[in-house]
Amino acid sequence: MPYTSEQKAMMRKKEASLPDAMRRDPNVNYYEGWFHVTLNTRDGVPVLSICEGDINAADGATDAPRCKLTQLGKAVEKEWRSINRYYKYCICDELQVMPEHIHALLHLLPGNKGHLGRIVNGLMIGCTHAYWDTLGIPWREMRKQLDDVLKHKLEEAGANIDDETRREIEVKHKALIEEHQDRLHMRSFRGPALFVRGYNDMEAITDDEVEIKRLYIRNNPRKRLIQGYRHECFQKHRNRHSRNWTLDRVMNAVAAAFSYNTEKLAMAQKAVKARLNADERGIALDYIGNVELLSSEKKLPLVCHRADANLFEVQKEAVINAARNGFVIVSAFISQKERDIKQLLIAEQLSFVEIIDNGIAEKYKGVGKSFYALAERKLCQITPWNYRYEKDVKVSREMCMVMNELARVICGKNDDWWK
Predict the structure, then answer these.
(1) Closest by CA position to 197, among listed 256, 148, 124, 127
(2) How many Å apart are CA 166 and CA 151, to the nearest integer?
(3) What does the mean pLDDT of the chain come to?
(4) Dist CA 241 CA 237 (whole Å)
(5) Alpha-carbon distances, residue 209 vs 25, 89, 204, 214, 331 (angstroms)
(6) Overall pTM > 0.85
(7) CA distance 227 to 221
(8) Which residues contact 28 (CB under 8 A, 6 or more apart)?
(9) Would you give the end-to-end CA distance of the chain in angstroms?
(10) Burial class (CB in 10 A: 0-12, 13-18, 19+), 291
(11) In this structure, is the dihedral angle defined by the CA atoms of residues 44, 50, 54 and 59, taken in order, positive or negative?
């Protein structure tokens, strides 16, 4: 049966109200594959667990970081493990019940008939029922009372009730239930919802991506404890200005790459302006991490140019030796060669400033090894861009030119210093 125009309008309104991270990708098959799902409790209430343990303890040790589940958290874990009872082609892989959200890894096998959204919705309903049980809400009796109202009305109408009268009674009963329901999934006629409406999913394609998701989920308690103990390392600094970081300088950096084509230059400069972080005072910068690195008098920019490809080993040795001698390396780490140097800096716990290709989200705390570099005060991440949620980040050539220029501005040096 096709959707009515009213139903379509309601679906569009629902989709528009969701944050970007909670919108479904029309190009993904949600019936098959690996999915990392995140569910957040309503208003971020930390009712599911408590993070405890020693951040320096090894994985598997008795005092290793972990989440100690509350009664409700245990019920949520039980609901998660029961999914396979209803969807036999759904494998419940990794799970982490954090205080105010859960991370879960699902594997939907070929032959699965349940859409990921339907599976997650069933999980949310089961968890909310467990929440009501914890709160002492007699939701089963309350629903039964409403059903009894319908049964009583039908009995009053008699056995010879016609179809039209029956439908009228059922419509009124449905309306009675909906009077007590909240379409934003904040509560129902029986009690409050445990999780907010919607969920965040990230599809994992390769075996390596699946393993990365597993490690991310497992490491959440350790990261949470580190973030709590060293909260100043993850403090975000918004809309900071520098007299050397101006719109003219940004536009000139873009012009250097597109001077051969005025039409492409105009398009590139327009695209950059749309992404730049700006306020009433002009273009601005956001950053997170050890801000002292930005004020160090010993800073050097890193940009690996194609023209210098045959000299990469010389450049790499110069950069690493400088970092070992107390210089802070500043780079956008765009090219593979630059990323190789970044891995060496992290491995030796050397200090560096990373110019990142997106804005800093409110809950951002570093990704992968960068998280630990932030925690060790060896890293400051800075960005000239406003934040956009993008599952597949695309960095344009003009963005690269701007970030490389910012590295030179921060250091006050050209990037050929190593020659």
Answers:
(1) 124
(2) 11
(3) 86
(4) 11
(5) 18, 21, 5, 9, 26
(6) no
(7) 10
(8) 203
(9) 70
(10) middle
(11) negative
Distance CA 95, CA 77 (A): 8
In 182-297, where does DSSP find H-type helix?
A: 207-229, 247-258, 262-275
Strands 101-108 and 90-97: antiparallel
Q: Which residues pair with 352 in a beta bridge?
A: 329, 379
Q: Taken in order 251, 252, 254, 259, is the CA torsion positive or negative?
A: positive
pLDDT digits (tens, 9 = 90+) for 346-377: 888 899 999 999 999 988 888 888 888 898 89
Q: What is the SS3 string spanning 99-139?
A: CCEEEEEEEECCCCCCCHHHHHHHHHHHHHHHHHHHHCCCH
pLDDT tens, position by position, 66-75: 999 999 999 9
User: How sure is the predictor about 411, in pLDDT bands with cuts at 50, 70 and 90?
Assistant: very high
- Residue holding tokens 């210093």? 417
Task: Identify which of 102, 381, 65 has the alpha carbon closest to the alpha carbon of residue 223.
Answer: 65
Gap between the Cα atoms of 158 and 163, Å rounded: 12
For residue 385, give the amino acid letter. W
The number of beta carbons lying within 10 Å of the beta carbon of residue 332 is: 26
Give the Cα separation of 238 and 289 in Å (integer).
12
